[in-house]
Amino acid sequence: METAVYASQLGPHDGGSLINEIHQVDEMHKKKHLTIKERLLLLDGVFPMDEAVLEALPKGSTFRSVEHFGTSAWTITGRIIADDADGDEQSYFLKVAFEDHGMTMLRGEYESSKIVYDVANDFLPRPYGFGKYKVQNPPTYFYLSEFVDMDVTTAPDPAEFTKRLSQLHKLSKSPTGKFGFAVQTCDGQVAHTVDWESSWAVFYRKLLLGVCERDLETNGPWPEMELATKQVAEVVIPRLLGRLQENGEKLKPCIIHGDLWEGNMGINMETGDSILFDVGSYFAHNEMELGHWRCEFSSVFRAKVYTRHYLRNFPAAEPASEFDDRNRLYSLKGAINYAAGHPGSMLRKTAYNNMCYLCEKYAPIEGIDKYDPRIDPSITGARITPHLADGLL
């Protein structure tokens, strides 16, 4: 594998000196972390490559070039051009992230992608590798996958997309027979709590409380929401989710995308089929996947036609009459997760309002507000443009 082209591609800086320069600026600014936007400004158009990435390319590859491709709120993304062992040009997609969180995020995506690809190899770009840059400062990590040319602006056909999604859920098999995942994964920049659990209610309780804790760190105390969170965790979750496994009832742990909204899927331009990316998976109740579709950041999948088609392929768990309440409960994780990554987001208030609804119906308690349908996006249709404030769209 040739590496000389790599050095020339980077121009006057090599990968090591450029990343060391970023580290020096980190120290100068005395910031614990730089945002991706800040790192992009410091890179000034140069893509941060490293020999470790070249070693992860398929055997016999000859590196040709790398360029920035696409945008991401939490990683730097690029496209690699290389010749394969037969001399044919191939493209690869590269993600780069920094420090311990970058390691957790990209390792989680790699391990998630391997599971999803093994179940449905036409529903996700082929994963090639995860690793750490040889340059030491700042600690830098990468995820390498197949490059798939996608249309990310066209809404997928509801019947086609939900059939493929439901098949992924149905065909997957938890290696332990439990809910969870082998390594920590992420939804955006927030890490999931994914310790293996036999009880789905216990697993979801821990998952939700994990993102609620992160939200408090980001957005500060809110006594009424904290009280509602406690009531949901201690009473509502056992009531709604405990029933799914009571009296010996079986609930299949299914691999889910983990952050599924229209911004994390596209249409394969070569085949015309829908395709996923940016996975942060774990084995869950399959309906958990649909919780994101209720949130303000999901505009396309909020259309009820997607849920209707999905349920034709994978019917709601019993009691089916409580499907919408479970969906509201599952949406809490997505909304609070988003708020934890975006200080001041309106989704925090949405999540609290949904908690109030669930508490009123299943576990009334004094000290919290009354549910207000006027600020419920599932009624009003309110939506946001995700990551707009990050300046990446």
From TrEMBL:
Domain of life: Eukaryota
Pfam families the UniProt entry points to: Fructosamin_kin
Catalysed reactions, as listed in the record: N(6)-D-ribulosyl-L-lysyl-[protein] + ATP = N(6)-(3-O-phospho-D-ribulosyl)-L-lysyl-[protein] + ADP + H(+)
EC class of the enzyme, as a word: transferase
Recorded GO MF terms: protein-ribulosamine 3-kinase activity
EC number: 2.7.1.172
Family matches, as PANTHER family: FRUCTOSAMINE 3 KINASE-RELATED PROTEIN, PROTEIN-RIBULOSAMINE 3-KINASE
Record's protein name: protein-ribulosamine 3-kinase
